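Inverse folding, one chain.
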């Protein structure tokens, strides 16, 4: 029997932000920043329960409210269960950040169909289903913020990442359509598109590869997870109440 994750009591009436893939990297920074800004945060994870609990502990120690929740973004039934059992009627859903994603890189001529399907399935289809379920709840609330995490790769493409680029580009078109549909209910839908960011994913790159990337960035540095988190926090705030259907690049000018 699976051990239930450590949880923390949340206020059912307090504005709540759900951050998918919130146990590490950009998702961790987003969760902490939204908690700093007054949201209580539900951060989801698929397999790293201890890491998610540690993130929640840090947020609570800093005076915020957070709880981890297991969620497989690649499983449509699990997403629907999550929103039905842990969100609807349980918390006041104010913000959804679709951050969870995977990569399975490979050159086009050698890419396996299952690798294409799995990346699109998690990154794009998972975003679709999470947004669909959140929108059902937010339309009754008549207010909400949805922020989807795309990538500079979805804007400019990248060799060896046809599946990832397709999914991230799809998120942009998907979000623009959602913005038009949900605006009448005062729900905004926007995209944050990070560039070359310091994360676990990029930490394994050699210094020469990093230097080559940085050379193509006008600001001459890699971005940080906090750079991305601040952009998300802005779009989730009332300061961005009249912004919807937009893409906010966080890339140091590498793609304008």
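Residues assigned per position:
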């Amino acid at each position: 029997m699976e051990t239930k994750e450590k949880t923390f009591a949340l206020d059912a009436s307090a504005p709540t932000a759900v951050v998918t893939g919130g146990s590490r990297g950009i998702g961790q920074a987003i969760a902490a920043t939204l908690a700093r800004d007054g949201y209580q945060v539900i951060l989801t994870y698929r397999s790293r329960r201890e890491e998610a609990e540690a993130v929640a502990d840090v947020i609570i120690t800093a005076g915020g409210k957070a709880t981890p929740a297991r969620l497989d973004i690649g499983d449509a039934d699990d997403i629907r269960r999550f929103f039905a059992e842990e969100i609807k009627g349980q918390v006041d859903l104010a913000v959804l950040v679709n951050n969870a994603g995977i990569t399975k890189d490979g050159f086009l001529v050698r890419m396996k169909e299952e690798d294409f399907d799995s990346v699109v399935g998690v990154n794009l289809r998972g975003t679709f289903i999470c947004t669909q379920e959140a929108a059902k709840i937010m339309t009754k609330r008549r207010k909400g913020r949805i922020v989807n995490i795309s990538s500079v790769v979805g804007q400019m493409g990248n060799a060896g990442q046809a599946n990832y680029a397709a999914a991230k580009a799809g998120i942009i078109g998907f979000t623009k359509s959602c913005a038009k549909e949900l605006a009448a209910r005062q729900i905004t839908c926007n995209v944050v598109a990070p560039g070359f960011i310091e994360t676990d994913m990029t930490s394994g790159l050699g210094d020469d590869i990093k230097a080559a990337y940085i050379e193509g960035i006008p600001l001459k540095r890699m971005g940080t997870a906090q750079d991305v988190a601040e952009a998300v926090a802005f779009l989730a705030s009332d300061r961005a109440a009249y912004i919807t259907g937009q893409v906010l690049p966080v890339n140091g000018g590498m793609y304008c």
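The first helix runs from residue 25 to 36. The CA atoms of residues 71 and 82 lie 7 Å apart.
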